[in-house]
Specification:
Number of helices: 5
Helix content: 25-40%
Largest sheet: 7 strands, mixed
Strand content: 25-35%
Radius of gyration: 17 Å
Shape: globular
């Protein structure tokens, strides 16, 4: 159970507290994803459109926020420009802590994943790394709390664990600039969801950070062309 009192006024934050709080955020994201599936939504095969539905119709919907426990604790915004770089974050997550420490926020980057060129340097797996993971390593996206996340939108039926293995292999052999100190490994903090992982990296200033990876399967919900 994630501690629900992490945002209490006066709470002293450290890396462990940020990590636990962000796990709580990701549990809420997963809860919204399961609502989307139950609603039998039909979505286009488009990264921004999928993100917008998840964000606007679920993460920002006050009734759904109450159901997931996100209300009163977290604010979700899209396409927010970073202050010190040219980066624009897919989803910025602000907390009560952000009101007293303006750079204490989390970032979630979203990328589509399909079955094309799974082990190549031009497929969506490679883009997941080059235009996702590496943006945190290069500090195009901030990691002020030592932890952020990626969401893989699965748009074609696949073995997700096997594809995660493909991403691991690409990180090891083709994208050494991601400074991976711990390759993707399974996580267990989201109950009844086997497709979430974490990896660890060093940024260009040699600071360590953690990335969580949620692989959300929308393959049965993609609108036919």
């Amino acid at each position: 159970m994630i501690d629900t009192e992490l945002n209490a006024v006066g709470y002293i934050y450290n890396t462990t507290n940020y990590n636990a709080e962000f796990q709580r955020v990701l549990c809420g994201v997963f809860a919204c994803y399961t609502m989307m599936l139950k609603d039998n939504i039909v979505i286009p095969n488009d990264e921004n459109e999928i993100r917008n539905i998840l964000l606007i119709k679920y993460l920002k919907d006050d009734n759904k926020r109450k159901i997931t426990g996100l209300a009163g604790n977290f604010i979700f915004d899209r396409e927010v420009p970073e202050d010190n770089t040219k980066g624009r974050t897919d989803i910025k997550v602000q907390t009560i802590q952000t009101f007293t420490k303006s750079n204490a926020y989390y970032i979630i980057e979203c990328k589509r994943l399909d079955n094309e060129n799974l082990n190549g340097t031009t497929g969506l797996n490679a883009k997941y790394i080059e235009n996702g993971i590496y943006r945190f390593v290069s500090k195009q996206y901030s990691t002020n709390c030592g932890v952020n996340a990626m969401i893989g939108f699965i748009v074609e039926a696949m073995c997700i664990h096997s594809n995660t293995g493909n991403i691991k292999t690409l990180l090891k052999n083709n994208f050494t600039n991601c400074n991976t100190t711990k390759n993707l490994q399974k996580e267990t903090f989201i109950p009844d969801f086997e497709f979430h992982y974490s990896s660890e990296h060093r940024d260009i200033d040699n600071e360590n950070f953690t990335l969580y990876h949620l692989m959300l399967d929308f393959s049965n919900n993609i609108k036919e062309k």
